[in-house]
Amino acid sequence: MKKLPFLSARERAGNRVTIGFAGIADFRSVIGQEYIAGVTKAASDYGINLINFAGAIKYSLSDDIDFIDHYLKKYRFMRPAVIDGLVTWASSLSAYLSYERIEELHAKLEPLPMVALGVPILPAVPCISTSSSDGIHLVMDHLTAKHGYARIGFLGCSGGRQYEERLESWRAELAARGLAEDPAMVGVLETLEPKDISRWMASLCGRFELRERKHIDALVTVSDVAAACVIEELAQRGIRVPRDLAVTGYNNQLQSISSACPITTVDLRYFQRGYAAVELLLDRIENPVAPHETQVVGSALIVRRSCGCFEELIEAAGSAQASPPCPEPIAGTAGSDPYAALARRARASAASLPPASRESLADALIGDIRGETAEGFLVWLQGALASERSLIASRVAFYQGLVSELRSAALEAVGRDLDLARRAEDVFHRARVLISVSSGYYEKSHQTDAYRFNNLARIAISLASALNGAEVLEALRFHLGELEIPGMMLVLQEEALPDLGGASLEFVHPPSYVPIEKIPYRIAKSAFIPRSFLPQDKHWAMMMEILYYSGQYLGYALMEMGPSNVALYDAVRALLSHSLYAAYVREGRNLRLRESLLRSERVSSILNTDEDRPQGRLGIDTRKVVDYLMDHMGEMTDLGAMAKELSISKSYLIRRTKALTGYTVQALHEMLKIEQAKILLETRNIKISEIALRLGFQNQGYFSFVFKKNTGMSPKDWVQRRD
Fold first, then answer.
1. CB 364, CB 428: distance < 8 Å
2. Would strands 218-221 and 503-509 be described as parallel, antiparallel, or unpaired?
3. How many CB atoms lie within 10 A of CB 530?
4. For 226-259, how does the pLDDT look when each residue is reduced to its tens digit (9 = 90+)?
5. What is the mean predicted confidence (pLDDT) over 554-560?
6. Tens of pLDDT along 437-483?
7. 3-state SS of 484-520?
8. Cα 535 to Cα 558: distance, rounded to the nearest angstrom
9. Where are the alpha helices (DSSP H) in 588-687?
10. Span 258-292, pLDDT tens digits
11. What are the backbone angles phi and psi of residue 218, rounded to the nearest 5°?
C-alpha cells in the first residue's frame, strides 16, 4: 500500500481521506469500466475511501431520468462535509451539455479540490487527458514503417471533438510522410451506426478495387466499433482482412477482440488515466494552492492481426530459453543461515500483505524447501488467493511476480544442493499452476455472469413477493451475500416524493457497521450518512445509487463495492427501487399528504357540510367529488373523464359540484392544489418548480400566479413569512 505522510496523519487522526468519482455514461462500456477500475485501484493502493457517485447522477446515456434536474439535485452530496475531493469524468457530460454549461455546473462545486478526466473544465481544475494525435501517429507509423503502406484511407464521424482531432491528425501524418490524400478514400459520417457504415462501404467498393490492395492498402477508423463493422462489411463482399486490406481501430474496446479478425487499435489507457487522476487529486488535497497543470497520458498501440501482424506474444512464443544453472549461495551469507536471508527476502517481497500473512508465508516456504512440511506454501497461497474477493488481472500479476521473486531467493539460498533445488522448483511450478487455475475459475465464472444473473432473477422474485417494506429489507439482507456485495446501507424516506428530502438510515448490512440500537437514524435533508457510521478500521469503496421509481425518490443506497462490474449495482438499485415503491403503495405511505390535506381548514369545512345534505339521487356527495380530484392532483381538470369515472353526465357533475361546495369543478380542483402546495411548502424543503410540476401546472410562473391569486402572496413569500 502506498502511503503519503499527510494521508497517514489523517488516518491516525481518525479522519481518513475520502474522494468521490462522478460522471455520466454507460458504465457497461469498456471506457467506463476501465476508468472505474483505475480510480478504485488507486484508492486501494493509497488507502483512501472512495464514493462512486455515477449511480447517483445518471447511470446510462439511455436513462430516462431528466438529466439537468437530476444532476443538479445530486450535487449536495459532492461537498467538503462528505468528500475531500472529486475526480469528475467531465467529457462524459458533453453528450448532453455544452462545454460552457459543464463549466457552470462544476463552478458550483468550488473550492472543492477537483481533477477532470477527458477535457479541461475550469482554469483552477487540472485535467488528465490524452492526445488523439499521439494515437494516430502510432497507427500511421506502424502502417507505413512496419508494413510500407502508402495508400491509406480514413473513416470518421462528425459531431465530436475527438473525431475531428483524429481526422486532422491523420491528415497531418500523411503530409509529414509525403503521402497524398485521396478525398474519395475519406468518409466522415453523421453517425457510426452500421447502416451508415454499410452505405459508405458500398460506395467505397464501387469506386475502388479492394482485393489484394490494388487501390487501397489500409483503412484507418476512429473507433473499434467502426472497424469491426468495416471488417464485417468487407467479409460479406469476399474481401479479406488483412490480406486484401488492412484495417485499424481506436479505443481498444471489446469489439477489437470479438471481431472476426482481431483489430490493431489504440489503447488510450483509461485505467492509467483514472489512476493518475487520483494521484493528482491527492496532490490537490494536500497542496490546494499549488499550481497543477494538465497531464497527458500517452497512448499505446495494440498490434493484432488486422494490420498484417501477429500479436507480440505469438511472435515471441518460440524464443523461450532454458533455465539458468543454480547460482552460488547468497553473497555475504557464508557461515550464516541462508534460510534467514530467504525469510527476510520473502517478507520484503510480500511487503504489501498484512504482517501475519508475511510471517506465515516465510515459515511455510522454508518448511517446504527443507522437507519439514508438505504443501505448506500451496496452502498459504490458496488462502491468500481466496481472500481476494475479485481476482482481477492486477492481482494475478502480483502473485505471479511474488512467485518469481521467491523462486530467485530460494535458489540462491539452496545454492548447488540439487535435491533442495529440485524440491524448490517443484514448489514454485505447482504454485504457478495454482494461480492459473484460480484465475481460470474466476474468469470462467464471470464470462457470462450466468450464475449472478440467476441470482438476480431469484432476488427479483423474492423482493417482488414482499408484502411490505420490512419484508423487502429482510429479503435483501438474506440475498445480499449471493451477489458478493460485502455491505449495504439504505437511507429511506417515509414516502415516495419528487425530491430527496429528510430521511432515515433504515437498513445496515452487516450489522457491525452501525450499532443496532441506533437504527433507524434520522438524517436531515442534504446531509449524508455520518462518517462515524462508515467502516473506520479499513479503507472502503462505495457505490452510491439513488432509489428512484415512477418519477418518485425513495432514498439512496450505499453499496460496498465487491465485483468490479458496475452494472451489477444498478441492477440491484432497479430491483430495490421497484420493490420499495410497491411496498410504499401497499402500506399507504403516500396517504399522509392526503390526510394532511383533508385536515386543512378549507377542505374540512367543505367536507363537513355533507352531514347536513342528502347524498343525491345518483349517490354523488362532496367526498366523492373531492376524492376524485385529489386522485388526479397532478393533472389538468378534465370534466369529461371525471363524469365518466363517476358515471354521471357532465352537466350533472357541474351542477352537483356547485351545489355541494359552492365552487365550480375547476375552481375546486385549483383550490385543492393550492392547499396541497401550502402543505408541501410548509413541511418539506421542495423546490417551487418541483411543486408546480407535481401539481400539474404548465410551468412555475403560472403556478406562482395561481398561488398568489388564492393566497395574496407568492410561494416564495409564503415560505419566508415564517422566518
1. no
2. unpaired
3. 12
4. 999 999 999 999 998 988 999 999 988 878 887 8
5. 89
6. 777 766 655 544 544 556 677 788 888 888 888 888 888 888 887 78
7. CCCCEEEEEEEEEECCCCCEEEEEEECHHHCCHHHCC
8. 12
9. 591-599, 601-607, 622-631, 639-646, 650-661, 665-683
10. 787 889 999 999 999 999 999 999 999 999 888 88
11. -150, 155
Length of the chain: 723
DSSP assignment of 326-368? PPPSPTT-TTS-HHHHHHHHHHHHTTTS-HHHHHHHHHHHHHH
Q: Residue type for 647, please?
A: S
Q: Tell the residue number behind the cell numbers 476501465, with chain if given.
A: 34
Residue 75 cell numbers, joined:
450535487
Retrieve residue 425's grid coordinates. 522448483
Amino acid symbol at 254: L
Q: Which amino acid is at 79?
A: R
- d(C-alpha 141, C-alpha 147), whole Å: 9
| pTM as predicted | 0.65
- C-alpha cell at position 616: 343525491
Encode burial over 249-284: b for 16+ CB neighbours within 10 A, e otherwise. bbbbbebbeebebbbbbbbbbbbbbbbbbbbbbbbb
Residues 335, 337, 339, 342, CA torsion sign: negative
For the residues of 411-456, what is the DSSP string, one character each?
HHHHTT-HHHHHHHHHHHHHHHHHHHHHHHHHHHHTSS-HHHHHHH
Contacts by 456-462, CB closer than 8 A, 24 or more apart = 456/483, 456/571, 456/572, 456/575, 459/483, 459/572, 459/575, 460/575
Burial class (CB within 10 angstroms; exposed 0-12, middle 13-18, buried 19+) of 291 = exposed
Q: What is the distance between the alpha carbons of residues 705 and 240, in angstroms, rounded to a whole number? A: 69
